[in-house]
Structures are given as structure tokens and as C-alpha cells.
Amino acid sequence: MIFSTKGRHPWIDKSIQPELWSYLSAIPKRYDGFTIQTGGTEDHIHILFTLSRKMCVADMAMHSKTASSKWLKSRGDAYAPFQWQKGYGAFSVSKSESPKVKQYILNQETHHKKMTFQNEFIAFLKKHEIEYDEQYIWD
């Protein structure tokens, strides 16, 4: 699952990233899932997880974004206006591809020296042959 901060604002500074990644990693476990890897940059996150058969992707996105937003806002006044974007991307990954995706998530900082989040997200949509209208994916 991939989602960004509202307007791709760089809210997620390096000082808060380890705690936020840890917090986000715990959320699928609350719903009988399992997190394999969480990471990202100042303006977006990636979560590689297994999804319980009792949970749909939209609900997992809602729980992840709502809980982590509340948690981040509790970290101090500087985070009070924080928001995630309205949407998200969710892509299936086979078990055999999981190690490659895990490594990709771990290398986000290096990866984004070459490609913006917007370009990365469009590349994911194209790779998975998902039709989109760009006016509806950025907020």
C-alpha cells in the first residue's frame, strides 16, 4: 500500500520516521494481518503486509491512515495540521516478489533521489495496467 501526505508536504522528517514506521507496522497486526516492511520518505509511505481474509484493502487503508494521523498529531504542535492524501494505492505482490519489494521499500531515500513520488506512483499504475485520470489522484 502506498499513500502520501496531503499535497506531498514533507511532514515526515527523519527524526519521526522510525517511530512512525513502527506505529504503521503494528496496524495490520490489529486486524489479523502481518507487516513485512514499512518505509518511505518525508512525503509518502509504503507498507508491505499480508491482509487478513476478514479485512478489505479499503478498510486497511482507512485504519492505517486514521490511526497514524492521530498518532502523528499527538507528537507535538508542529504536527497538528498533518493530513494524509485522500487516496491510496494498493498493489498485490506475490510471495516470491516480496523480498524484492521489501528491499525497494528499504531503499526509498536513494530511489527518490532519481524519481519523485508522483512519477513513482504513475509508474506503479502503468506497471499494473491501472487506468487513471491524473486530476483525481493528487490532492
Features:
Alpha-Beta Plaits; globular; alpha+beta; 3 strands
How are strands sequenced across the largest beta sheet?
1-3-2
The number of distinct structural domains comes to 1
Q: Helicity range of the residues?
A: 25-40%
What percent strand? 5-15%
Going by CATH, what is the homologous superfamily? Transposase IS200-like
Radius of gyration: 14 Å
User: How many beta-strand elements?
Assistant: 3
CATH architecture: 2-Layer Sandwich
* Sheet/helix structural class: alpha+beta
**Could you tell me the mean pLDDT?**
92
Summarize the main sheet: 3 strands, antiparallel
| Low-pLDDT windows of residues | none
The SSE string, one letter per element, is: EHEEHHHH
- The general outline is globular
Q: Tell me, what is the CATH class?
A: Alpha Beta
How far apart the termini lie comes to 17 Å
